[in-house]
Amino acid sequence: MPPSLVAPAPDLDSAFAALGDPVRRALVTRLARGDATVGELAEPFDLTPQAISHHVGVLRRCGLVEQRREGTRRPCRLRADQLALLGTWIDDQRRAWDDRLDALEQHLTDDGAVR
Length: 115
Known about the structure:
By secondary structure, the chain is mainly alpha-helical. The protein has helices spanning 12-19, 22-31, 38-42, 49-61, 80-114, and strands at 65-67, 76-78. Strands 1-2 form a two-stranded antiparallel ribbon. The longest helix is centred in the C-terminal third of the chain and has 35 residues, at 80-114. The chain is elongated. The termini are far apart. It comes from Planosporangium mesophilum. Keywords: DNA-binding, Transcription, Transcription regulation.
């Protein structure tokens, strides 16, 4: 496969930046249902296929989408494994904050019991 079509491992900063755009989030949601070409992805939007292709390129460069050649077609596929890495990072942050809030609650409870 040509190097330009191979998606790199996700970089958290670029992946989250890419997902900051509502069109790209919608594309990820659509690709979660199955592969689609740029033309198919463009159908529900009031955007040109070229604009959708740009958004797909951003998602591809950050590692969340890959494209392959099937004759004259170039279907896009969501890299769910890479998307899961973002979910893992979010879950780790959630656990860390839950632990901090539990420790704060315990501290406040202990402090109140001492008085």
